[in-house]
Fold this sequence. Notes:
Elements: E1 2-4, E2 15-16, E3 19-20, E4 22-24, H1 26-38, H2 54-58, H3 65-77, E5 82-93, E6 98-107, E7 110-118
Antiparallel strand pairs: 1-4, 2-3, 5-6, 6-7
Amino acid sequence: MIDFALDPKTGDLVFEDFDFALVGGVDQIAQNLAIRLRFIQGEWFLNILAGIPYYQYFFIKNPNQIQVETFLTNEISNTPGIIDITSFSSDFDGINRKFTVNFGCRSVDGNLEMEQILP
């Protein structure tokens, strides 16, 4: 699959020589994973059930880490192109209310390792 390339820091479209940059293979799957892991449930008006329920389960006083990890691993494994998850770890920073997720996956285009700091 091929998709428009997005800047990993800002999420803006990337241009090369006054044209859209494209991304494919493992890089496209990694980009898709990053988008899906930042997608907050209720954010898209056409399907308010799509996304991860951050407000209901993550952004609370004492989040259940097992439940949170289940939401994340389900989202990762249901991403198109992902075959299986080879490694997974997460860390919760209670002061800043940030989850850091490190995981490895086998995909149809090869292996990938990612770290995401979730909202």
